[in-house]
């Protein structure tokens, strides 16, 4: 196995994490579903680190990463929030869950057509939005109130498609910094 295959294998693992999350969601195991999303986020971060550190970025990798992230951090968290909470709002709950996926897809598409590298994210990255939605839906007692769940979903959707600049913290030079 060559070093160039490592990022593709990591992206496959990220995609598998999202699929496993949805499987656990359908089988009424929300804790395991959320754990799969969090693990997928860790793997996505490791993939980003490896790709940038070893200069292995490709167009194929960028597109495959977006597809994997749409499943793992768009569809899987949307399914969790729908099955745990939004299903109580039959039509609008389904529309809100769909809106989360759509906004994630828009965020990823905007990222993919960017022509230059910035020191910041434009809008909230989907992996952060997806992890927040999944974790807060499962473990936050505040979200037992439907209104707050709806507000959270709408806020995350708005942040993903916004033009807000969010500093990047996953730079390789920051990982090796020693603090005393």
UniProtKB/TrEMBL annotation:
Protein name: CDP-diacylglycerol--serine O-phosphatidyltransferase
UniProt entry keywords in alphabetical sequence: Lipid biosynthesis, Lipid metabolism, Membrane, Phospholipid biosynthesis, Phospholipid metabolism, Transferase, Transmembrane, Transmembrane helix
Coiled-coil spans in chain: none
NCBIfam families for the chain: pssA
Gene Ontology terms: cellular component: membrane
Primary location: membrane
Family to which this protein belongs: Belongs to the CDP-alcohol phosphatidyltransferase class-I family.
A Pfam family it matches: CDP-OH_P_transf
Highest taxon above the source species: Bacteria
Statement: the UniProt record of this protein carries the keyword Transferase: yes
Protein's cellular compartments: Membrane
InterPro entries: CDP-diaglyc--ser_O-PTrfase, CDP-OH_P_trans, CDP-OH_PTrfase_TM_dom
Organism listed in the record: Paenibacillus ferrarius
A GO molecular function held by the record: phosphotransferase activity, for other substituted phosphate groups
TM regions (residue ranges): 32-52, 64-85, 91-109, 121-142, 148-166
Its membrane topology: Multi-pass membrane protein
Biological process, per Gene Ontology: phospholipid biosynthetic process
